[in-house]
Give the backbone structure.
Amino acid sequence: MKTSFIIILVASVGYLVLTILSLSDLGYNITNSEPTVQNFENIQNIHLIEKENNNIIYEVMAREAFILQSNKSIMNLRDFTVIFYLATGREVTFIGRTGKIDSESKLFNIQDEAVIIDDLDRIMITSNLTASSITKFVVSDDPVLMLGPNFVIRGKGIKFDKENFKFTIQSDVTATVRK
Amino acid sequence: MLLLQLGNKRLIQINLLMISLILIPTFGLGATSDDKLKIKADHAEIDGSGRVTFIGNVKFSTKSMSMVSSKVMVYFNKDKTIKEIIAIGDVKLKSATQEAYGDEAYYRLVDEKMLIKGNARLIGEKANIQGESIVYDFKNKKVNVINSENSSPANGKDVARPTIIINLDDDNSGK
């Protein structure tokens, strides 16, 4: 009886700690606002489509999304894919584990590791990526690895110009190209 | 306009994609063989046509040669193999026995020929050759030095400036 009580107590404390850590991960300032579970809305298997003049601009698919009640313009995402459909008819896919979409500032951010795949099957792996609908640029200052069908490029920092469909690796470029 | 749809079909595809990314081999970055080109540069641009441009202090090397230039563009065929390599600005090529210089260099892989244009110079063990253009034929091991028909010497008189063909196999370059 006593052992069962201790197990239940330890499990409860553990669950509480994990919940607090999870909230902290999402960017909530626990010490200042002391949010509770009721402060945000959790949506599973979300699929969002953003349209402009009846054309799809981007779509978001996420395993989980969190929307803070006090600021509904920011959506925190977990295990997600964002596909940008460009005016030229081309498309670029972004994959991330944690990220944010701010519908007011038009900023989309992937924290931690980010994977970019373009329609020529080129894959770029970087982290801390920010995309702006206003500037039309997607940027990261972190190291980047680009895998093309016949080449591998490494460097530091990446900038994607959505209008011109051009990726720029900003510095320290080393590459291996197969003949 | 923001539409909301629920469903997990695409998420399964995403997870499969992430697994396949982990399994992608990086085709032996550490190894250097003659069918691989190693490139270093300040930065690189990869455009929508598939062209890759290396810009700033570009150092380019294979097992048998090296090249430096301000800018190197790599073009690919539809089957993703390299079609052409173009170097622009202060091109310097170096192999074990020769050095070549020029303003621009064009290397076509289909016939293994390299054209060096603009103040082209070839410095070999036995000869120094200068011309408007130099064509390296790697397949047939020949060097073709071309001078423009319109080019004239300083005194204004036309002088025949024939094309010089050097067979690298004969070891007679410049003789």
About this structure: The radius of gyration of chain B is 23 Å.
